[in-house]
Amino acid sequence: MDKYTYGAPLQLFLEHIVPLAKSVQNASDRVKKGRKHKDLQSWTDQLWNLLPSFCRYPVDVHHSFGSLSKLLVEILKCDECLYKSAVKALQQLVDGTRRLSSSSQNVEIYMELSALFSSKPISFKCPRLERCSKKQARKDLKVLASHSANLLCTFADYFLESSPEKRAHLKVALRCLAQLSGSTNICELFVSLVKRFDLENTQLEPDSQECKTDVDRKDEESIDTTDELNNRRSLLLDLISTFAEVADEDLLDKLFGFIKSCLLNSSMPCHSKALLALSIIVKEHNEYSMAHLDEILLLLHGIKPALDRTVLESQLLCYQHLLVHMIKVDEENTSKKAFLFLNELIVALKSKKESRKLAYDVLLAVSANLRSSESNSADSDLQRLFTMVMGYLSTPSPHIVSGAIAALSLLIYSDANFCMEVPNLIQSVLVLLQHKAIEVTKAALGFVKVLVTSLQPEKLLNLQADIMSGILPLSSITKHHFKWKVVLIVEILIRKCGFDAINLVTPDKYKDFVKSVEEGRKGNHNLVDGAESEPKEHEQHDPKRRKRVDSNAEAGQEGTPSNRPPSKSWSAGKKQAKDSHFKKGAGKGNPRHAAKNHQGKASGDRGDRTNFKSKSKWQPGNRGDKLRGNNTKSRGGAFSKTQNSGTRAPGHSPSFKKRKRTA
Length: 663
Known about the structure:
This protein is mainly alpha-helical. It has helices at 10-30, 35-48, 51-54, 61-78, 83-101, 105-116, 127-131, 134-161, 164-181, 183-196, 206-218, 220-243, 249-265, 271-284, 286-291, 293-301, 309-329, 332-349, 353-371, 378-390, 398-414, 425-430, 438-454, 457-460, 464-471, 482-497, 499-504, 511-522, 527-531, 533-541, 543-555, 568-586, 591-603, and strands at residues 631-633, 639-641. It has a two-stranded antiparallel ribbon.
């Protein structure tokens, strides 16, 4: 019933369901314990949960809303559990009435109801909507507005006394009532709350506030008073974030003044809420934000969000909305200031993980907002954002350059086709593949990977020559995974454009490398993994060598990548170490078994009887032990693997007793 009730009279709920719900509640109160009490309480909740459904496009708003408003106040004051139903009912009633009074009411509501009842929009009919006219809906809206001022004060008082969990729900009701009440009633309510909380002198000079803080630290009572004032400021800031959307200029002046005083003088817990309220003002009132841009700039740059993630999140949200407004305005004065906000985002992209994730989200939101703009200059606005980010590619700081490349990678990932329309974008990043700073080269390789992954094959055909010329010089550098990244990019290009097209634009000295990548791709194995398998094997058997390799890698991370390929002497050294390893694995035991051990390791396809202990004494209980697939250590000190083939082998030396041979 609560799902399919539309267009019902409110009077029906008030006269029949409310008395029934109260009667069942009284019966539940008389039953203290047991299953019967739970059943009665469940029936009571189900009856009250019908209230939101009766508020979907009711037919008698102008007659019954006065009684309904009294019921809502009664629910808030007397019952601690039904506030969700009251909030949802008020939201349904206000939103539904506003939609009925708008011009596009029929399309939206008919689509909603037809989806609910699984009917086609053309054949669906609703008598309630057919009888309702825009004129009647506007009359209902005036009735709601006439009661909104009293309801706003009541809900605000209940909001200030409630727990944080309830405040999240009550904000929805307050936002609906604020849309009906108007800025005059909201302004009167806000001023009265400021006086009620003794916050008229909130705007203090920074010096006097600092002196007051020093005195408060000496007096515990003053500290308690300061904490209480900060809690009151936090509550008012929550209300500001709810009222800011519908505020006019006079109310905005009061709200912005309160926010500014909190950011300048209050303690850290208030900063996140103050910035959140400021972000809503910036988002909903772009003209007011542009008029007070210098003040907002000073406020945002004076905040140090390093200690609080919520502060950083709200601060970046302000940057997001301001950056969108400033790019759309496209004035010389505002464009220079826009670089200040963009610089903060790029620096955040190179900071710790949480900040980087927030900066990514903000940059994507800016791009999406500019792309979805209804104005004719949406493409030029987005191109202006790309151009502004590209301006950081010429800065002397590698940290900023790599952050700008990361920002461009994110932007082209969200809209790869648009990057083809930005002049010199791809060429500007490809040049940075040969940069001396390792972090810049890493970022440029990441950009190329995102580019070849996102673009369609027909658009890659015009870029494959430039891409191959840029990445192939890095194919001989094994440090920092450069070679592995080049192999991955070449594989993607071959898969999308074909081997013949890629081989045609490959320089002669790199054709063997590209051919090996293609062979490895067809063989369904990774070329880089195969190339690095031998060093990994030696690292397992020689922990000292592994430590040396790790220390060398760490020491070379901040250096310049070397273009010199591995020398032949290094390969010869690997082979010699491998031969020495097999000789040690043979031990000092039976030469015949040592030769079999060496042969089994070399072939790799047999492992039935390998690696017996040499010159070991017989001990009771060793006979009949199974050989596992673990590493065993010989007296020579070398490790060798045994394969679990399912056969049994003696646990003593083969020199103690000869193995029987089968004919």
